[in-house]
Write a structure and sequence with these properties.
The chain has 177 residues and is α/β, with parallel strands linked by helices. The protein is 26% helix and 25% strand. It folds into two domains: 36 residues; 101 residues, no CATH class. The radius of gyration is 26 Å and the shape is flat.
Length: 177
């Protein structure tokens, strides 16, 4: 009887440990972890005209490798552009050229948005703590809803004109005075 209780207690301890391990793993993968702070690293700002559905704790990548996270997003009241603060691993930030580009991409068709950095060609100057990637060096998010509405608006406004099968030229409508 005593041996049975020992086995039950041991199995119970292992089950609790397994559940806690899975919970910690789920929190870490989802980015909702309160136990591990990811605020370390170089803080770099990037300015975008549209960030789509980019969120705080979104990934920052170079060539598909995660090198940092989005730590803050604010709206600039003067320009109405989004300012995004990135925390980048200092090992990688020290080697990123100053003229690097930042683009907001989507993971899959309906996935989360993330920031992809493309290294520039500057050989002597690198991104430092507090540097800004200006609007001219950023590519805003492509919003699927905007693309669909533009496509539908093009179809509704006469985008369905057919070209002449012999010449391949579309008909032109000339207003009559």
């Amino acid at each position: 009887m005593m041996k049975m209780k020992t086995v039950e207690i041991t199995v119970g301890i292992f089950m609790v440990a397994a559940i806690l391990s899975l919970l910690m793993l789920a929190l870490q993968v989802s980015g909702l972890s309160f136990f591990f702070k990811e605020d370390g690293g170089y803080k770099i700002k990037a300015e975008f005209s549209n960030i789509g559905s980019l969120k705080i704790k979104g990934k920052v990548t170079v060539a598909g490798v995660v090198i940092g996270r989005v730590v803050n997003i604010k709206l600039d009241p003067d320009t109405f552009n989004a300012t995004v603060w990135l925390a980048i691993d200092p090992i990688h930030a020290k080697k990123l050229p100053y003229d690097s580009r930042a683009s907001i991409l989507t993971a899959g068709l309906l996935g989360d948005n993330y920031i992809s950095l493309t290294p520039g060609f500057e050989e002597n100057k690198f991104l430092q703590e507090g540097d800004i990637i200006p609007m001219g060096s950023t590519d805003s998010a492509v919003v699927l809803e905007q693309l669909i509405s533009k496509f539908l608006a093009g179809q509704a406004s006469g985008g369905s004109k057919k070209s002449d099968p012999k010449t391949g030229v579309e008909p032109v409508s000339v207003p009559v005075p």
